[in-house]
């Protein structure tokens, strides 16, 4: 295998980028808007430090610098149509029967109060309450890579009920207040309806504790491993009547032999090893499926535990459940959706959006997702090329005379 193959120097960047622009071009309609969108993508993929409209226009050398802000504002095109094409592209490039869907939210800190959805609210990105916007995102990950495939801005209830603010920000009439888990349900259902091959749906405790999300996935017979809080209330009917407990109490009662060491993917220092255990949950699962409480425990600090609800085909092993839980950090690749956020923000300007309107926010995010999907496709093609090369044996060394 040549160095050019595994180093990526044979990637035909210009040709592949032109192909991407050709695939998404119809979304933008008029030739001038398509040209501006192409220049916007060039800017997102360039080394420009701030991916704001005016700086991207300057970097592109456009005669009329207002064309970039206009692309996010006055121009006529559908951000959801672009999202659909990005999602289809990612599924084509990364799709695998063992792939996973991962949902999570990320914050965008703002100084003012006029951008759509901005409010004093908790941001996991900042780790505290901040003046910010919150976006709920869906990522697709497989052995070929990972990329964001959907997004929706979380509209706080005060915003959703303020007709004056809604009008100024151009919030569509059909958009009403929805919790983050409700948004997640819509994003996941849309991806599954679009044909995303999915072995597991993964999410943190904010989403795992939502029973309607779990029921929706179970109705589709879609396996999941969703984190839950240690004090989540569980109720069971026993011979003595209704019993209430929680994951932490159930884990405390486990015998020492119930714990088995399994890896949860790879970290920067190698395999991430944890002790794992599971407890069957009585439920009315669909035929062929079963419910589990899955517990992960630190081997060095046993008091550090994480808990998951799992819905899986009958006969699934503890190792398979542990591996699925670890897929929020994709084995052999970089961490899952958090890495998607980090790369998109650091390199592609996901958090550089200056548009204040509803459609401006979704347009900016969709264009950033298109750029990230493009890079994911290139990386996936490179992986396939290197994996497809047969290992060559070293030449035999002549025996010493």
How many individual domains? 1
Q: What is the fold-level CATH name, i.e. the topology?
A: Transposase Inhibitor Protein From Tn5, Chain A, domain 1
Give the C-level CATH assignment.
Answer: Alpha Beta
Give the number of helices.
15
Reported for the largest beta sheet, the result is:
10 strands, mixed
Mean pLDDT across every amino acid position? 89
Helix content bin: 25-40%
Overall geometric form: globular
First-residue to last-residue Cα separation: 32 Å
- Structural class comes to alpha+beta
CATH superfamily: Transposase Inhibitor Protein From Tn5, Chain A, domain 1
Q: Any low-confidence stretches, pLDDT <50, length ≥5?
A: 1-6, 330-335
Strand content: 15-25%
Rg, nearest Å: 24 Å
β-strand number:
12
CATH architect. name = Alpha-Beta Complex
């Amino acid at each position: 295998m040549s160095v050019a193959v595994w180093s990526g120097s044979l990637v035909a960047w210009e040709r592949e980028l032109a192909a991407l622009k050709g695939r998404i071009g119809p979304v933008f309609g008029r030739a001038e808007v398509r040209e501006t969108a192409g220049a916007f993508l060039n800017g997102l993929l360039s080394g420009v430090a701030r991916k704001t409209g005016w700086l991207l226009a300057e970097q592109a050398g456009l005669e009329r610098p207002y064309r970039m802000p206009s692309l996010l504002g006055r121009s006529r095109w559908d951000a959801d149509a672009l999202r659909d094409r990005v999602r289809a592209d990612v599924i084509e490039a990364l799709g695998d029967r063992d792939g996973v869907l991962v949902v999570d939210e990320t914050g965008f800190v703002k100084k003012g109060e006029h951008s759509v959805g901005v409010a004093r609210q908790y941001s996991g990105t900042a780790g505290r309450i901040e003046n910010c916007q919150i976006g709920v995102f869906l990522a697709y990950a497989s052995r070929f890579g990972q990329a964001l495939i959907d997004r929706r801005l979380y509209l706080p209830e005060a915003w959703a009920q303020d007709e004056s603010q809604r009008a100024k920000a151009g919030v569509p009439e059909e958009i009403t207040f929805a919790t983050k888990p409700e948004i997640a349900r819509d994003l996941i259902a849309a991806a599954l309806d679009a044909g995303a091959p999915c072995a597991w749906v993964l999410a943190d405790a904010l989403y795992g504790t939502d029973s309607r999300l779990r029921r929706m996935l179970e109705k589709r017979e879609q396996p999941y491993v969703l984190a839950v809080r240690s004090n989540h209330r569980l109720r069971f009917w026993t011979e003595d009547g209704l019993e209430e407990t929680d994951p932490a109490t159930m884990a405390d009662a486990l015998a020492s032999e119930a714990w088995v060491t399994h890896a949860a993917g790879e970290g920067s220092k190698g395999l991430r090893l944890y002790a794992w255990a599971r407890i069957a949950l009585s439920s009315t699962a669909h035929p062929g499926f079963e419910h589990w409480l899955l517990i992960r425990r630190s081997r060095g600090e046993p008091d550090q535990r994480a808990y998951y609800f799992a819905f899986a085909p009958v006969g699934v092993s503890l190792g398979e459940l542990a591996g699925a839980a670890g897929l929020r950090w994709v084995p052999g690749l970089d961490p899952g959706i958090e890495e998607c956020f980090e790369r998109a923000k650091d390199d592609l300007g996901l958090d550089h959006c200056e548009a204040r309107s509803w459609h401006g926010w979704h347009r900016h995010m969709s264009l950033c997702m298109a750029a990230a999907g493009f890079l994911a496709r290139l990386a996936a093609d490179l992986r396939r090329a290197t994996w497809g090369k047969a290992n060559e044996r070293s030449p035999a060394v002549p025996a010493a005379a």
